[in-house]
Amino acid sequence: MADSNVQVLFRNASVLDPERGELILDRSVLVAGDTIVEVGGADVRSQNARVIDVRGMVLMPGLIDCHVHVTAVTADLASLAEWSPAYVTARSGRVLAGMLQRGFTTVRDVAGADFGLAAAVDEGYLEGPRLIFGGKALSQTGGHGDWRSRGRTVSDTCYCCPSMGVICDGVSEVRRAAREEIRRGAQHIKLMLSGGVASPTDRVDSTQFSLEEIRAAVEEAEAAHLYVTGHAYTSAAINRGLECGVRSIEHGNLMDESSVGLFKAKAAFYVPTLATYSALAARGTAFGLPEHSHKKVFDVLDAGLHALELAHRAAVPIAYGTDLLGGMHEDQLTEFSIRSQVQKPLDIIRSATTVAAQLLKMEGKVGAVCSGSFADLLVVAGNPLEDIGILSSPEKHLRLVMARGRITSSSIN
Ligand SMILES: [Zn+2]
Description:
It contains 15 helices and 17 strands.
């Protein structure tokens, strides 16, 4: 946590305002501790602030990735469950640091991370983005969070194992699992509503959990003023979730028109994760993805852009997500270039700032350069509203990262 007596004053900034969709020129931005305390013109003053002149550069809110797994340090998620938790934590530290270096100052972990990892970042023991976590994902037996092969009967249910899922069947088990995550401080509940790529025994196009089970999870989350986010590929799975009150849908590659109206009617969010499928198709097996899973990637790979187009045309709120595993985390910024085949730079920037902030219920705190917001800021050389490639090549264009008021990397004198 940054000391509130420490102040930083950015001068001559072209501030990127994702809400207005433009640069506001010649701004001064004053940071005290972990908060932006004033945004104004040349009249913004401070006695003891460190002054950083960013003339000719763009100051923008730090990026938000709404679908990550920081503990997924290998793409072999079944074997991950048997690794030492200490070892996984150490390697997660490397994943987190990489995200911050790419300009992500907040990430939403949707299976794997827990209160300990979030606290370690918060207290400065690990360098990384603010970690919004949901604990383990809830999965039915044989669902996307059940990593057992067909030949294995026993499952180790010890919560401390770095497995990303918890298996629960029936309304009362789902309620208990949701309540356990909430007790541990989860900020959302993740439900596996369909099969997936990395799970060994399910089909991508299956639906998972009964309607009663989904409703039970939504009821428990809402009772704690939280929400449910659901992993789903087909419209059948998506629509069951949305009708039961699931607030955000992850992946959704195989959706058709029938889902679009439901997203709108329910004011739900869509989180595509296109970066992971191109990474898995090209390099998944090199990073531990088993062969049976690698085959499934091609069930969803090509459909992803079409789903994005459907949602975008209907103005469904779309948030930025990547879902990368193992060494493929380095592809976290390729989502920008993939989406640019369908969306304009401003749409994609909003997905990683203002829309993400709404999904996280953190509007005014993240995703904007405004007074009262956390001081999560990037300085980039070039205007990402004109060229989204500015954000996807940080080695060339990213000049400074500030997270919670602390400058974590800078090449500005
Ligand atoms: Zn995921």
